[in-house]
Amino acid sequence: MAVTEDRIEDAAALADLLHRVEALEAAEIDRGRAVQKKNKMTIIAWGGNLDRIWPTTILATTAAASGLEASVFFTFWGLFAIVKPGVRITGENWMQKMMSVMNPGSAQKAKLSHYQFLGAGPAMFKKLADEHNVAKPDELLALAQDLGVKLIPCQMTMDLLGLKREDLLDGLEEPIGAATAIREMREAAIPLFI
Amino acid sequence: MSTTITTVDARGQSCPGPLVGLARALKDAPGGATFELLATDPGSKSDVPSWAELSGNELVSAETLEDGSFRYVIRKAM
After folding, report:
1. N or C: chain A end with fewer CB closer than 10 Å?
2. Domains of chain B, CATH where assigned
């Protein structure tokens, strides 16, 4: 009698053990797929307008100042914001050149999406910024680099617009593609598209 | 123990000026170093506590001075 009871208990213990092993294995698989988020902010800077590039640079510098890892991926019109201030016309063919004339490079020359008024809008905006001691995007970009924000150009847009590495600001990260941008965003607790 | 307080004068500066100035001052300081941040930006009232929470540094005190400006005392995390 006692022997049978022991066997039943053993069988129950074994079933329980197997069940727990199964649960652990499942958890292990989950762990492998789960994403470990970092204390990090990644911004996809798609827009090159002043009213996009400004918040982009404010958020990036503030994140870095707050101890977060920060990176900004510049793509499409955003790329013109990190063209060197002195660089005028970029590109190889007439289409790329025309694109650069319509989107003058550097954050200093960024246009407003509304109230452009042939340049009067941004001028007024910058005058107001001066009066309120708000740093301007080109200053914020330099500050961001100083604070260790990774500024990353998009390789594909560079090719498309005919922008060369030497047309862009110094101290940028190596140009990357969409998959690396996604990897940056996946691990960032705060991914933004501006 | 030294009790020197480094002053970061960000009066007149707007967001994110005061925090960037503070972060730069803290950068090379040892853990436990104490700073006072002077600011006039009303946004700093919410921004400095947020910054402290994000960065893990300690906001020791926050006060509004007689002239309406703000004074924050911050201790760098160890």
Report:
1. N
2. 5-75 (3.30.110.40)
Residues in chain B: 78
ipTM of the complex: 0.82
Q: What is the pLDDT of residues A109-130, one digit of tens each?
A: 888 877 778 788 888 888 888 8
Side-chain-side CA neighbours of A111 within 13 Å: the count stands at 13
CB pairs under 8 A between A and B: 44
Dig out the tokens for A135 from the structure. Answer: 């740093």
pTM above 0.90, yes or no: no
- How are beta strands A188-193 and A38-45 bridged, if at all? parallel
CATH number of A38-193: 3.40.1260.10
State the pLDDT confidence band at A2, using cuts at 50, 70 and 90: low
CA A14 to chain centre: 51
Look up tokens 């090379």; give the residue.
B28
Extents of the domains making up chain A: 1-34, 38-193
The reply to whether B15 belongs to the active site is yes
Across the interface, which of A66, A67, A133 has its CB nearest the CB of B14?
A: A133
The active-site residue out of B5, B15, B60, B77 is: B15
Task: Tell me the three-class secondary structure of chain A, residue by residue.
Answer: CHHHHHHHHHHHHHHHHHHHHHHHHHHHHHHHHCCCCEEEEEEEECCCCHHHHHHHHHHHHHHHHCCCEEEEEECHHHHHHHECCCCCCCCCCHHHHHHHHHCCCCHHHCCCCCCCHHHHHHHHHHHHHHHCCCCCHHHHHHHHHHCCCEEEEEHHHHHHHCCCHHHECCCCCCCECHHHHHHHHHHEEEEEEC
Q: Name residue A40's beta-bridge partners.
A: A69
